[in-house]
Amino acid sequence: MSAAKRVQQWATFARTWHIFDCKWQDPYESANIIKKYLMGQHKPIYHPLNDCGDVVVCINSREIALRGDEWRKRAYFHHTGYPGGASWTLAWELHNKDPTMIIKKAVYRAMKGNLQRRHTMQRLFIYHEENVPEDIMKNVSSQIRQSRLVPTRLDHIPEEEVKQYPKVMDYPKDYVLK
């Protein structure tokens, strides 16, 4: 076997570390993307009984975007296991308590039918901001593309660039905003 083929085979069987930025992403669309990498569906050796998935690190889970008014209408179920331990929590309340939980529940739900999903979820690391421990970041070697482009906010554009941008018109000096 040639050296190139040996490296290709090693890369196929090795666990690669990927990073995914959740900023302004729908958690349910993101969960389907993340699921493919956790389960190894992006590899040519994938089989449902084969544990060949990779590790995924999610950052900025505090800045996810739910569609429409799902922040107020979507509810998450939790049961303690004791009688009367069932509870429903609205998405905004759950996100205020733990900003990583909505992504975690979305990925867990996306892996429905996977008998090993509890073990597979151990390879998912979720952080609510961009600060990730150095020992985890040194393992990351790939980035997962976001499903939506994140636009640049106007207050993050440098003032020089805003002034150089072509104007459609200039307001008269005596113009009053109502």
From TrEMBL:
Give UniProt keywords alphabetically. Ribonucleoprotein, Ribosomal protein
Judging by the UniProt lineage, the source's domain of life is Eukaryota
The UniProt family comment states: Belongs to the universal ribosomal protein uL13 family.
GO terms under cellular component: mitochondrial large ribosomal subunit
Protein name stated in the entry: 39S ribosomal protein L13, mitochondrial
- A biological-process GO annotation: translation
InterPro entries attached here? Ribosomal_uL13, Ribosomal_uL13_bac-type, Ribosomal_uL13_sf
Q: Which organism is it from?
A: Arctia plantaginis (Wood tiger moth)
Entry's Gene Ontology molecular function annotations = mRNA binding; structural constituent of ribosome
* A family per Pfam: Ribosomal_L13
